[in-house]
Amino acid sequence: MTSDDYYYKAIDLLKKLISKPSISRDETDAANIIENYLRHDFKNVYRSGNNVWVVQDDFDDEKPTILLNSHIDTVKPVAGWNKDPFSPIQEGDYIYGLGSNDAGASVVSLIHAFYIITSKLQSYNLIFLASCEEEVSGKNGIESVITQLPNISFAIVGEPTKMNGAIAEKGLMVVDGIVKGKAGHAARNEGINAIYKTLPIIEKLKNFDLEKESPLLGKTKFTVTQIQSGTQHNVVPDSCSFVVDIRTNECYSNLEVLELLKANIDCELTPRSTRLNSSSISPCHPFVKRLEILGRELFGSPTLSDQALMPFISIKIGPGDSARSHTADEYILGSEIREAIELYVKLLDGLKI
């Protein structure tokens, strides 16, 4: 098949995916499409829940293995769509539809790069994995199937980066805080106001500063995003709860940040999860060096992806623009998909890791 053939097949597959709603935790139809598509040409196709992966036919246990990954789930359509989010509409180079940019274009580009790269002998094995529940960091997504894969040496995660390389990605930890006071009647100046006790804590969190700064991701960022207290206007509140959104850099694990918080913030702090850690890859990695040779930008990404759940080296790179994700009238350009397939092949063909 020619490169044009793979491009047109990728566009057709993307349109099929757009036409089947695949909101996080409800991706069955999209997983069926991917599974059937791959089974038509490959024998080693596997499925667990709504995660689907294919292992190249001539897999060699003696070689290192590269994982190609992107996700098939989408967020719910936001208000403001002027088009049907589940009807793939092509107007010139523009292809509209929910998930077209995030991350359907990466899915179909990586699949067809897999077809091309596995058609010739390489010094590594290749696996393509379409994962589910990425948008909600769900436990039934990639985290549930990593142990079912062969040992992975390196992963390429398809997300909209304009085909530039995100060689570092911030992690996420959400922490619930609670401050205790004592209830009393507001008119008689009774009790201990939990809101007043919380204010200096929030101010301290606002200015909380960790020493290690990443050249790509900057400092770990602490943002109080929610606060709740009180039952009625004339009762001094006996508790105040708040939520801290923490974006970690690669200099700290989430557990390390949590311990530093507990040592310096005087209240009860409970993480919802510590599993979504920051990640990074060395600028000297052979794949990264190829990106540089091809003139692509290297950057640190503030947005989360399935990289956060990968216990191996990875890089984030894919067609489209992150600014279009989760927006009304989301779109991808056909030319971006063509460029992505060609660039993935240039980066992977003959790569030695």
Provide an overview of this structure.
With 353 residues, the protein is of the alpha+beta class. It has seven helices and 18 strands. Strands 1-2-6-3-7-17 form a six-stranded mixed beta sheet, covered by helices on one side. Strands 11-13-9-14 form a four-stranded antiparallel beta sheet. It has a three-stranded antiparallel beta sheet with strand order 4-5-18. β4 (89-91) and β5 form a beta hairpin. α1 (3-18) packs across α7 (334-348).
For the structure shown, list the relevant keywords:
single chain; 353 residues; alpha+beta; six-stranded mixed β-sheet; 7 helices; elongated
Topology:
Layout lengths: L2 H16 L9 H12 L5 E4 L2 E5 L9 E7 L17 E3 L2 E3 L3 H18 L7 E7 L22 E4 L7 E5 L1 E10 L3 E2 L8 H13 L14 E9 L5 E2 L2 E10 L5 H11 L3 E4 L7 E2 L5 H8 L4 E4 L12 E3 L14 E3 H15 L5
Parallel strand pairs: 3-6, 3-7, 7-17, 8-16
Antiparallel strand pairs: 1-2, 2-6, 4-5, 5-18, 8-15, 9-13, 9-14, 10-12, 11-13
Helix pairs in contact: 1-3, 1-7, 3-7
Global outline: elongated
How many helices? The count is 7
Structural Rg: 23 Å
- Average pLDDT, rounded to a whole number, is 97
User: What order do the SSEs take from the amino end to the carboxyl end, as H and E?
Assistant: HHEEEEEHEEEEEHEEEHEEHEEEH
Structural class designation: alpha+beta
* Major beta sheet summary: 6 strands, mixed
Distance between the termini: 28 Å
Largest beta sheet: strand ordering? 1-2-6-3-7-17
Kindly state the number of beta strands.
18
